């Protein structure tokens, strides 16, 4: 595998930002890795970080590079700060960045596919929210998305960080039933002709467990198909390192 640490300028954000990219490399004598490469365009996974993290965290806390070495999959890990992958009321347009500009930049830098069947997103906590938002909002562009201990309802963020919440969403009233609300997006998604494949998991000791259960019941009422798994686990990296391996097994690669 090759690791690219990219600094680049974003027209959407009006500033320089960063992403890490894991890229397939065929090797013959690299200890512990065989690698997989092809002459065509590669499927791509946008792997999203959580609230207190950055673009480097998946590489620092998991063995993601080793896990994808035989999959022929490009992994893109962008930096979005504490934006909740949203166009902020008082701040930058991070939703436009991650949903529109970032894929265009990645496709211009690397030979990745633009087919929805080859385009995936996954993330943990705030990144799980971002991944679900991409899948529910853009089913014509994302074939599958995965949420690991995801924030399904940022209302808890409003309770803990009300001023920061208002900088992003304006107010709780403005957030509800908006394109930032996963419950609202799921209702729109239920009527879409194309359906992104959805995967969710959450540890039973996670503080977001009950919120995830409420969102799952909402999907059931809407008859939206999904895969959900739970087992003992908290909001921590041991759990996420285990579950990202499951996500990679689940991704519909090669379709």
Automatic annotation (TrEMBL):
InterPro entries: AB_hydrolase_fold (IPR029058), Esterase-like (IPR000801), Mycobacterial_A85_antigen (IPR050583). It holds the Pfam family Esterase. Keywords: Hydrolase. GO terms for molecular function: hydrolase activity. It comes from the Bacteria. PANTHER family: DIACYLGLYCEROL ACYLTRANSFERASE_MYCOLYLTRANSFERASE AG85A, ENTEROCHELIN ESTERASE-RELATED. This is Alpha/beta hydrolase.
């Amino acid at each position: 595998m090759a690791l690219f640490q990219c600094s680049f300028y974003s027209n959407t954000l009006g500033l320089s930002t960063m992403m890490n990219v894991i890229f397939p490399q065929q090797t013959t004598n690299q200890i512990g890795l065989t690698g997989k490469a092809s002459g065509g365009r590669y499927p791509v996974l946008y792997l999203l970080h959580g609230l207190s993290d950055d673009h480097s965290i998946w590489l620092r806390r998991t063995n993601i590079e080793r896990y994808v070495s035989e999959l022929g999959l490009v992994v893109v890990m962008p930096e979005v700060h504490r934006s909740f992958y949203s166009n902020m009321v008082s701040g930058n347009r991070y939703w436009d960045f991650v949903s529109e500009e970032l894929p265009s930049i990645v496709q211009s830098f690397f030979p990745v596919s633009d087919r929805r069947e080859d385009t995936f997103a996954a993330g943990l906590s705030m990144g799980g929210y971002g991944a679900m938002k991409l899948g529910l909002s853009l089913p014509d562009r994302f074939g599958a998305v995965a949420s690991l201990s995801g924030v399904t309802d940022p209302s808890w963020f409003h309770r803990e960080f009300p001023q920061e919440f208002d900088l992003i969403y304006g107010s709780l009233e403005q957030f509800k039933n908006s394109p930032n609300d996963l419950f609202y997006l799921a209702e729109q998604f239920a009527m879409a002709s194309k359906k992104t494949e959805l995967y969710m998991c959450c540890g039973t000791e996670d503080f977001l467990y009950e919120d995830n259960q409420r969102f799952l019941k909402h999907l059931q009422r809407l008859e939206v198909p999904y895969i959900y798994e739970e087992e003992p686990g908290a909001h921590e990296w041991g759990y996420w390192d285990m579950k990202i391996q499951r996500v990679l097994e689940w991704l519909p690669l090669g379709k």
